[in-house]
Design brief:
Strands 1-5-6-4-7-3-2 form a seven-stranded mixed sheet, with helices on both faces. The protein has a five-stranded mixed sheet with strand order 8-12-9-11-10, with helices on both faces. A hairpin with a 4-residue loop joins strand 5 (about 200-205) and strand 6 (about 210-215). The protein has 20 helices and twelve strands. The chain is an alpha+beta fold and about 550 residues long.
Length: about 550
Amino acid sequence: MDSFGGQHRLVDSPLPGRINRFFYRSATFLLALAVAFWAVLPTPIAQARTAEQAPAQTVETLSIQPYLDRVTDAVTEFTLDNGMKFIVLERRQAPVVSFMIYANVGAVNEADGKTGVAHYLEHLAFKGTSQIGTTNYAAEKALFVQMDATFARLKEAEKTGDEATVTQLQAELEALQQEAATYIEQNKYGQIIEQAGGVGLNATTSADATRYFYSLPSNKLELWMSLESERFLDPVFREFFEEKQVILEERRMRVDNSPIGTMIEEFLEASFDNHPYGRPVIGYQEDLFNATRQDIQEFYETYYGPSNLTAVVVGDVDPAAVQAMAEVYFGRYVPRPDPPELEINEPPQTAPREFVLELDSEPWYLEGYHRPGLNHPDHVIYGMIDSLLASGRTSRLYKTLVSDAQVALNIGSLNGFPGDKYENIFLLYGLTAPGNAPEDIATLFAQELQRLQQEPVTQTELDRVKTQARAGLLRSLASNSGMASLLAEYEAKTGDWRNIFKDLEAIDAVTAADIQRVAQELFRETNRTVGKLVPPRESTES
């Protein structure tokens, strides 16, 4: 899809940890995940607990420290009077600037019965304002009122089973939509950015956050300030019912009509009792259909206040000019109360869980374990375990299951699934090879996890994953857009963007004893949920 068409990406699993970003993933499963829950964005690593006898910094860490120091020195940060935080990184290599607005809200913040509104709002945030995207906002607004009232009556008629009235109201709603469309300037927001030389216009919704981003020539800084401040100062949720159908179709394609999408949704529901991570980011079909414009408005008013937004600007800019313009444009935002704190009431898992899902699919095996959120002191250790087990063709699970025993066509992992701000799931998965069953994968998974618990990893393996982590982090820092994403994510989730660089020290301090200790705590039978996706018995027999 054309980026300037306001393409949106739904992020259900922000594979956390720079150290598990850089291994070979199953192309088949990644495609399935993209279909089921869209693409992914990396998320940050918190500091690891260091052993009392932590090793000295390695040569690799020391050699890049001057670069990291220069990056840190180039960062300017300020907070407007209304509470909105800005982080600016001056990089003069090219006359380009990357921008990100990070809303510290995702699907995890949705109320029961209103799932999908975070993603719904992200879609509507590209529809313009009272000045952008319309030729007659007053006439358009009057039609919004009529459409919303008609939809309310439509829902009531459906509840009572009055099919004749339902048909009539559907026709009325469609006619109102067509009339409203005569006032709409389609994709005006994207056109303005494209004409200014912008690239990469996009947004993502995940369990934990919503991100809006693109890049512009450096002489278009004030254009970004104007457009983005208006986007969240004066949003108009036009084409509301058109987008409802778009999102419902997305759900049908990526979940309801996708065996692996259905499996992932079932797996999360089985893994959690009360945690909002157990709900799909895209939302349930009934909730999506019933969602109203007022639901979106209330969600926006609650979670899109300036104190819940972080703006990051990276590239060829003068930090003083950024601050001056930010005060003019974003300073117009009126302070709002902080959003309510999310209360998680998930009881500890005390017994193993397992289910089998029969669908027309190749057999898959999924195995997940509860792990703490990213601000836990052992967070980087979980990422290193992930890398040891599933990072490329040299990883333990790949060598054992794919190369040697050949019971799986491929294996992989999702560390921090479906989000990582709160307690989440460490997921391992495998696609069975012909002539094998999910149980064959389960047996060898158990063998390798037990080995990790009982035998210290070798120094060679430990050095390999540390090198992967450092290289991965540096690759992310190399681009303006990658840096903008990292700065925003770390600031919002860990409380300080500087933790990007502290992670290198934390990774370097991890020992074989740390790996063994965390593996023993993580891979407990009582902490495990297993899902098996198999074809129906009749199709297998035939």
